[in-house]
Structures are given as structure tokens and as C-alpha cells.
Amino acid sequence: MSYFDTDWAAMTGNDWFYTIFSVIILILMTIAYAYALNPKNKAHLESQKNALFEDDQTNFGENNDR
Length: 66
Prior knowledge:
Structural class: mainly alpha
Distance between the termini: 72 Å
Largest sheet: none
Shape: elongated
Strand content: under 5%
Number of helices: 3
Order of helices and strands: HHH
């Protein structure tokens, strides 16, 4: 069981920063997955799935009117 022991006093500033950073990323990813996989958000997400492609087509015609 000593494999999982952590010497908290010996941790450097970088160790603390990346530990906290990793926990924050874990929380944000959990929230993102919960939002994306929630059935009530399906209609909104489906309506936005081609937004980047539609933007490109609209801008392409406007930029080539020389």
C-alpha cells in the first residue's frame, strides 16, 4: 500500500501547478461530456454540427467579388 503514498511536503511548485491543472481539466472534461451526451441538448448540437462548413461557403462567395 506504500505505492500510493504521496510526500506532499516534498512537492515543488511545478508539481502543485500541474496537479491542480490536471484536476481542473478533469472537471472541465467531465462537464463537457455530460453536456454533449445529455439527450435534451441533442437538437441544439445537431443544428450546429455543420456551422463551420456553412460559414466557409458564405465567406467564400463574399471574398471573391473582384
